[in-house]
Amino acid sequence: MIICPYCQSHLLEGTLFCPECGANLFHSAEGSGACAPFPEAASEEAVSGRTTAQIAPTQLRLLVLNSGRLILCPLAEVLLVGRSDPAGGIFPEVDLTPDNAYMAGVSRRHARIIRRGDRFFLEDLNSANGTYLNRERLPAHTPVPIDDGSEIRLGNVVLRAIIESPSSAPGVP
């Protein structure tokens, strides 16, 4: 097992990309099991003499208000949100099982989050107990934009969206 140095996820040996945070990983030559980012190419500053800001993808985190758990959403175009069902082969990218999802009325395939560029959209997948964005029930199969600070409710599990864009990161003008 190796540990991602960025999000501390436990990963299998040989993993090249962290499925939790999307970080590029490689094993050290000594086989210590540590992960490190791939070596960076020469910076534009070194090549051109100009300074530029490093561009990173916009990141979505979800704070589960019921439990205080913070979920770092994987860097993917579409994320299934729900609860896991190993017998049925359902393993959502945003798994609310640890947050008592079954008792709180979260469906296995409750909703999905769609990334389009640096924006995120929430879509209800015709769930039994509904998906709410800022206290308004979403119509099924209609993606609606998520903003930083939006409240998302799936059944009785309440989440707060935290959207961190490169321009909102500390140290970026």
Topology:
Layout: E1 2-3, E2 10-11, E3 26-27, E4 35-36, H1 44-48, E5 59-64, E6 70-72, E7 78-82, E8 94-95, E9 111-116, E10 119-124, E11 131-133, E12 136-137, E13 144-146, E14 151-154, E15 157-164
Parallel strand pairs: 7-8
Antiparallel strand pairs: 1-2, 3-4, 5-6, 5-15, 7-9, 9-10, 10-13, 11-12, 11-14, 14-15
What report would you give on this structure?
This protein folds into two domains: 1-38, no CATH class; 59-167, Tumour Suppressor Smad4, CATH 2.60.200.20. It has one helix and 15 strands, in the order E-E-E-E-H-E-E-E-E-E-E-E-E-E-E-E. It has one helix at residues 44-48; strands spanning 2-3, 10-11, 26-27, 35-36, 59-64, 70-72, 78-82, 94-95, 111-116, 119-124, 131-133, 136-137, 144-146, 151-154, 157-164.
Structural class: mainly beta
Which blocks of ≥5 consecutive residues have pLDDT under 50? 27-44
If helices are DSSP runs of H or I spanning 4 or more residues, what is the number of helices? 1
User: Which sequence of strands runs across the widest sheet?
Assistant: 6-5-15-14-11-12
- Mean pLDDT level: 82
Give the % helix. Answer: under 10%
CATH topology of the largest domain: Tumour Suppressor Smad4
How would the global form be characterised? Answer: globular
Task: Please state the CA-atom Rg, rounded to the nearest Å.
Answer: 18 Å
Estimate the strand proportion. 25-35%
Instruction: Report the top-level CATH class of the largest domain.
Output: Mainly Beta
The sequence of SSEs as H and E is: EEEEHEEEEEEEEEEE
Query: What's the architecture of the largest domain, going by CATH?
Result: Sandwich
Number of strands: 15
Tally of structural domains:
2
Q: What is the rounded distance between the termini?
A: 38 Å
Main sheet, how many strands, which sense, barrel?
A: 6 strands, antiparallel
